[in-house]
Amino acid sequence: MKNLFFLLLAFGVLISSCKKDEEEAKLNPTQTQNGFAINYTASWCGPCGNWGAPLIHDYANAAPNGAIICAHASNDPMNNPLYGSFSADRTTGGGVPSFWVGDVKTTSASAMSELRATAASAGVDYKYSVSGTTMTIDTKTKFFSAITGDIYLSVIVLEDGINGNSTAGQYKQSGTSTSYPNDDYKHDYVLRASASGNDAYGEKITSNPASGSEIEKSYTITLDASWKNPYAVCILWKYDSSTGVPNYKYINALKKKN
């Protein structure tokens, strides 16, 4: 009888644990505005290191769950075609560093806090796993109000912590003597890959979604073996060319690191 009691107790604990794991595995998009910023930058650019890098980190601190991206320009070892894809709609204005927060080209210190104070019409949640050089990303988007237009989802891989100090060769970041006096500069939020190839703004996932509608989609991205700690971010956009650039109007984003 005593053994039966402990067996039933163990079984109950197991069932409870399984239910907890199932709940944790469920994706649950929220209306919280998490924020988005992109910094067009380059390792050879002195102002990018001097004041650009601190500013993008300030935006990241103001949006810990937001999609913060550094897109590296040409003649930079971290450059890729996604730089041109982003800047074709969110322009650099002719130089670097250059910043966008949401749909506003700005260097305002308060821009991220102002964006995050707005209510989002949709939210996205996701989980990802890595096997070898393949990252699999499962996403769920939920709409909290009806939207007229085409909705796009970017699924993007970023990398943090790339050495950019004075001994880092081509990765050395110019202009960091004031910002990083300990010579410990790291390249963070580095734009690496998109689930949509060279298209930074992703794929259309729906048109004219109704309030309460949900969409689940899965993606795979091939990783470079040299990327040390890649992670995924997701960004929702509404395509609308009627009011000028950016045509991809920002809705919401999310960053989760395993």
SS content category: alpha+beta
Report the β-strand fraction as a percent range.
Answer: 25-35%
Share of helix, binned: 10-25%
Whole-number mean pLDDT: 91
User: What series of H and E elements makes up the topology?
Assistant: HEHEHEEHEEEEEEEEEE
CATH fold annotation: Immunoglobulin-like
* Poorly predicted residue ranges: 4-11, 13-24
How far apart the termini lie comes to 44 Å
Oligomer: single chain
- Please give the CATH architecture: Sandwich
How many domains make up the 3D coordinates? 1
Shape label = globular
- Count of discrete alpha- or pi-helical segments spanning 4 or more residues: 4
Cα-atom radius of gyration: 21 Å
Count the strands?
Answer: 14
CATH superfamily: Immunoglobulins
Q: What is the CATH class name?
A: Mainly Beta
Question: How does the major sheet shape up?
Answer: 5 strands, antiparallel
